[in-house]
Amino acid sequence: MENSRQEILELLGKGKITAVEAAEMLAAVGREPVAEKAPEPEPVKAEIPVEEEPMPVAEIKKSSGGDPHWLRIRVRNLQTGKNKVSVNLPLGMFRFGLGMAQKFSGGLIDFDIDDMLAAIQQQGDGVLVDVQDEDGNEHVQIVVG
């Protein structure tokens, strides 16, 4: 359509058609049917199934070997029972992250990370934190194992 308008204006510029003829031709070009848009894709009808991981119970079995290796963090919605957050961190990565945080905190972290990790490992497997927030409708558990 843009090419047609350009051609009409060129004809007018060369004097081959009058201004009235150009106006009529431009109006006719404006009435030409516009190419149809591609149809909108249909929304996905089937949802992708996501398996919910059950919330660990307070009693955790001891791991087969000495020290615990994982820090497991769960946040569950009390109404629906579905997990909002489920994170499993190797304790080594947790130690590394805390060390980095301490270096870049500018003195905001004023506790000894090694003492905290030693206490976690000494406690062994089990629940470290178990909090139910009735106002926020959440259950938070931090488990070592």
Mean pLDDT: 78
C-alpha termini separation: 69 Å
Question: Which value, in Å, is the CA radius of gyration?
Answer: 34 Å
How is the main sheet built?
A: 4 strands, antiparallel
Structural class: alpha+beta
Which series of helices and strands comes N to C?
A: HHEEHHEE
Number of domains: 2
Taking pLDDT < 50 over at least 5 consecutive residues as the criterion, the unreliable ranges are 58-62
Task: Give the overall shape.
Answer: elongated
Strand order, largest beta sheet: 2-1-4-3
Instruction: Tell me roughly what share of residues is in helical segments.
Output: 25-40%
Number of helices: 4
- The count of DSSP E runs of length 2 or more, i.e. the number of strands, is 4
State which percent range the strand residues make up: 15-25%
Explain this structure:
By secondary structure, the protein is of the alpha+beta class. It has helices at residues 2-14, 19-30, 91-104, 113-123, and strands at 70-77, 83-90, 126-133, 138-144. A hairpin with a 5-residue loop joins strand 1 and strand 2. Helix 1 runs antiparallel to helix 2. The longest helix has 14 residues, at 91-104. The radius of gyration is 34 Å and the shape is elongated. Mean pLDDT is 78; it is low at 58-62.
